[in-house]
Amino acid sequence: MKQNNYILTCEQIYKSYQMGATRLEVLKGIDLNIAKGEFVAVKGASGSGKSTLMHILGALDKPDKGKVLFEGKNIAAFSGRKINEFRNKKIGFVFQFYHLLDELTVLQNVLLAPMVQMGAIGWLLHSAKAKKTAAQLLGELGLAERAEHRPYQLSGGERQRAAIARALINEPDVILADEPTGNLDSKTGNDILRVFEKLHNAGQTIVMVTHDDRIAEKASRIIRLADGKINPPVA
Ligand SMILES: Nc1ncnc2c1ncn2[C@@H]1O[C@H](COP(=O)(O)OP(=O)(O)OP(=O)(O)O)[C@@H](O)[C@H]1O
Ligand SMILES: [Mg+2]
Questions:
Q1: Model confidence over 101-144: pLDDT tens digits?
Q2: Range of the domain at 171
Q3: What is the number of structural domains in the chain?
Q4: Which pTM does this prediction carry?
Q5: Which atom of ligand 1 is nearest to the CA of 211?
Q6: How far is the CA of 109 from the centre of ligand 1 (A)?
Q7: Which protein residues touch ligand 1 with a CB less than 6 Å away?
Q8: Which ligand 1 atom sits closest to the C-alpha of 52?
Q9: Dmax of the chain from CA atoms?
Q10: Pairing mode, strands 39-44 and 205-209
Q11: How many Å apart are CA 30 and CA 185, to the nearest integer?
């Protein structure tokens, strides 16, 4: 079969949740092709299934039906090891709630994923390089002075930027961001937006849920989720 250029593809994704006696159909046949280097903005009303779709794209959740392909390969067929590698190295997650660990400093939070992946020996050999990369990333995100802070000592915008640094440390192929500017003031939101714009200009593939029209304007493409479908015809 001819290999296409898409990095991430959804084919006929269905997802529903059983709530007591009723079944809530959230995604009803989603087809989506994301090309390398694309910046796709995902819009849709609250409850339309945007986060559900992002979780499925990043293999944090499974669809009831349908396939997610990464570089043309069905991720459902990945072994346990391969799926971990997909989640940890190929995808960078920036989600609404930061999931930073308060026990660790900002720098340690950013270094956690490479540390876990390298293992003890690898870490002994390569931690200097990882630390340098992390410090550089924090610098680019305006957090050089915050590296030794703990997440609870940061403002919302700083926390969001720390979460972005954490998502970028492994140089993921795709960034999945769920309303990264959602609970920020407009100045901080603009700073974060600039970070994503710069990443996109450098060729980073980004899929971002956003309600913010200014962000959506910067995207290569906007998709809208409603009634379990993408871009349904306007009634
Ligand atoms: N684990 C779950 N169990 C039951 N229902 C769920 C679950 N997760 C999500 N839902 C329901 O599925 C629907 C879609 O949820 P989802 O979080 O994907 O929406 P969303 O588009 O991200 O909304 P928002 O803009 O508010 O973040 C919602 O109605 C929600 O209540
Ligand atoms: Mg959501």
A1: 999 999 999 998 888 878 888 888 888 988 999 999 899 888 99
A2: 37-62+79-225
A3: 1
A4: 0.89
A5: 25
A6: 28
A7: 17, 19, 24, 26, 44, 46-52
A8: 18
A9: 60
A10: parallel
A11: 33
